[in-house]
C-alpha cells in the first residue's frame, strides 16, 4: 500500500515541545541522596515515567505519520492532548503515590483520545488493511486506558495497583512488536518518521544544554562545565551523523527498530546528562557514577548504532565494527575506573572516547 510523502508540520513541532518539557521534568525525580548515590526507586521511576511519555508520544506520532492531515479535527485533538500532557508533566513528583490519581487518570484520557482518532479513521476508510490495523490498536489503547482508571480506585495496596499500571504501560508500549505483520502491510512514511524522531531528539539535546547552564556561575566558569558542554556537543554530533548519513530514509518498513530504539536513546541521553551534571558539581560518588554512566551510554550509543545497522544505506558487514566497539567500550570503562577520582581527566577521557567512536562510525558510513 502506497503512503503519501509528507513533511513534519508546525503543529507536530508545537506538540513535541510540551513532550520535551515533560521528559526533562522526569529528571527532577533523580536526586542524589546523602550517600551520594541515586536510589534504585528513583531510577526505576525514571525508566517507567520515560516509558509512559514515550509510549503516548509514539502512538500519536505513528498515527500522524500514517493518517493525519491538516484539518480542524486533527488540530483539536492535538490541542486537547497537549493540555493533558501538561497535566501529566505537572503530576511528576518524587513521591509518586501522591500524584498517581492525576498521573494515571491523565494517561488514560490520552490513550482514549488516541484510540478515538484511530476509530474515526477506521470508520472513514474502506481499506481492509487499515481497518485491521486500527482495530488492533484501538483495543490495546482502550484496555490500557481502562486499567489506568482502575488503578486510581481504592482497591488493594498502592504497590499492587502501581504494579498493574506499570504492566499495562509495558504491554501497550511493546504491543506493536506483536502485530508486526499488520504494521508491515501498511508501512510508515519512513522519511517523515525519521525526521520526527530526530527533531524530537534535538529538543532533548536542547534540554541537555540547559543542564550544562545550571553548572555555570556567571562570574566563574569551571573546566568541568566546559568539558560537560563538549560532551553534549559530541553526543549530538554522534546522533546527527547516524541520522544524516547512516539511515536510508526511503526504506519500505514498519520502522519498529527506529521507534523502540529511541526509548533507549531517550533514557540513555536523559540519564547520562543528569549523571554528568551531578559529577561536575561533585555531588555523586564516582564509582556509582561510572557504573550508571556506562549503562546510560550503552543505551544511547547502542540505540543509535542499531538504527545505522538495521536501516543502512548500503549492504555492509558491521560485525567487525560491533566487535571492536565493544572492546573500545570495555577499555573506556577500565580507564574510567582508574581515574574516577579526578574529574577533569575523567571528563576529558570521555570526550576523547566519544570523539573516537564518532570517527569510527563515520569511517563505517
UniProtKB/TrEMBL annotation:
It comes from the Bacteria. Pfam families: LtrA (PF06772). The chain crosses the membrane at residues 12-34, 46-63, 75-94, 100-121, 133-156, 162-179, 199-217, 223-242, 254-276, 288-311, 318-336, 342-359. The keyword Membrane applies. Keywords: Membrane, Transmembrane, Transmembrane helix. This is Low temperature requirement protein A. It comes from Candidatus Enterococcus palustris.
